[in-house]
């Protein structure tokens, strides 16, 4: 088997070429602040993937925190007000 794998259908799974993996890791390097700010082009793929997972977890915690804060705010205002309607629409997104 060559070191370059081509995209192919085998048993329902899709294979990604090494070049595509490299491209995806480069894109992650640009998206994840921790990598972009500290290791723009030096971080190995394993570090990029680990930092990406950490970043996604932190975003999930932030979303949960903001949702909780919006819910608490909604409890303190008139349920029929325009503000309450806006908060409900934000919570349903």
From TrEMBL:
Pfam family, one: bHLH_ILI
Boundaries of every BHLH domain copy: 5-59
GO molecular function, one term: protein dimerization activity
Cellular localization per UniProt: Nucleus
Swiss-Prot/TrEMBL keywords: Growth regulation, Nucleus, Transcription, Transcription regulation
GO biological process: regulation of DNA-templated transcription; regulation of growth
Gene Ontology CC terms, in alphabetical order: nucleus
InterPro entries on file: bHLH_dom, HLH_DNA-bd_sf, PRE
Domain of life: Eukaryota
Entry-linked PANTHER family: TRANSCRIPTION FACTOR PRE, TRANSCRIPTION FACTOR PRE5
Protein name: Transcription factor PRE6
Organism: Cicer arietinum (Chickpea)
